[in-house]
Amino acid sequence: MATASHAAAVKSLNKLPGRRRFVFKTLSQRIEDIDINVFRSLDKLKAEPSEGSSFFRDCLIEWRELNTAEDFISFYEEMMPIVQTLPLILLHKELIFSKLISRLQMKARLSLEPILRLIAALSRDLLEEFFPFLPRLADSLVSLLENGADREPEIIEQIFMSWSYIMMYLQKYLSP
């Protein structure tokens, strides 16, 4: 039960001049606030994957700890047996990519960030072998945006962050 002291404590949080601490932002204002710069990211990039592992597997394990969405857990359980080593990932790259792309849906919005990060991690493991997947990935991302992600600034930011990481990992293979 809230007491007068609780109310006073909450009111003391607002140190800004004015009465309202939180202000509604329109969609366009929220989109303007998106900042994407993978070269100055606060996330630390590992130079090498864990011993005997891959960037994809490390990312999958990391996101299993962070994301408990049912859709992502089922994806994790499906993928774990075929991503134990880099040679296994190379062997099953088509299957892995197809499963990732099939999860890019608004109905699984809680799993979108890990799936997008996993796509970027897969590109880092495959390097130039990822090029054949780029058109399908671009089509899937556009489809995701057309199906409602264009109204969610957080998802827009995640999409562009993933695409930016992919381009960063593949940049030396893109030029002739």
Number of strands: 0
Rg, rounded, reads: 20 Å
Give the count of helical stretches. 9
Give the overall silhouette: globular
Low-confidence stretches: none
Total count of domains: 1
Q: Approximately what portion of the residues adopt beta-strand conformation?
A: under 5%
Question: What is the CA-CA span between the terminal residues?
Answer: 67 Å
Helix content bin: 55-70%
Which sequence of SSEs, written as H and E, runs from N to C?
A: HHHHHHHHH
Averaged pLDDT: 85
Structural class given helices, strands, pairing? mainly alpha
Short description:
InterPro entries: SSU_processome_comp_20 (IPR052575). The chain has helices at residues 4-11, 27-32, 55-66, 70-79, 86-91, 93-102, 112-126, 134-146, 153-174. It has 176 residues and is mainly alpha-helical.
Structure description:
The protein has helices at residues 4-11, 27-32, 55-66, 70-79, 86-91, 93-102, 112-126, 134-146, 153-174. The chain is mainly α. The protein has one domain. Helix 3 (55-66) packs antiparallel against helix 7 (112-126), helix 6 packs antiparallel against helix 7 (112-126) and helix 7 packs parallel to helix 9. The longest helix is centred in the C-terminal third of the chain and has 22 residues, at 153-174. The protein is globular, with a radius of gyration of 20 Å.
Task: List descriptors.
single chain; 176 residues; mainly alpha
